[in-house]
Specification:
The chain contains no helices and six strands. By secondary structure, the chain is an all-beta fold. Strands 1-2-5-4-3-6 form a six-stranded antiparallel barrel.
């Protein structure tokens, strides 16, 4: 496994996390190397470097449902994809990067709640 680093408590939240596993199924389950701190309804993108298994997920995005501190399911059907694998001596790591939310998961997404007159 390559040596990859991600800051567990970054200034910007939510942050990129290193992926250690993705299951074949629908929805697919993703496992990160440490707590992801994501929330249900977050939209994430998977980044799969060359030579990793399951290249079909590279740059796919989907909404997630958190199932554990280091796991979540993603609305992507990986049933027919190649198995996830990490090449020995890889120079890059598989990553998941959040970039949006489903508006219904936000409190007051369309209303200004600031206390201004």
């Amino acid at each position: 496994m390559p040596v990859c680093y991600a800051v567990p408590t970054p200034i910007y939240q939510p942050a990129m996390r290193i992926v250690s596993a993705i299951t074949k199924g629908y929805p697919a389950q993703v496992t990160t190397t440490f707590a992801h701190d994501y929330v249900d309804g977050a939209i994430v993108r998977l980044n799969m470097p060359p030579n990793y298994g399951m290249q079909q997920v590279n740059q796919l995005q989907g909404a997630i449902l958190v199932t554990g501190t280091t796991t979540f399911t993603i609305d992507i059907n990986t049933t027919t994809f190649d198995a996830f694998s990490q090449p020995i001596g890889a120079k890059q790591c598989a990553q998941v990067t959040p970039f949006g939310e489903i508006p219904s998961t936000l409190a007051n997404p369309f209303v200004n709640t600031l206390p201004f007159p």
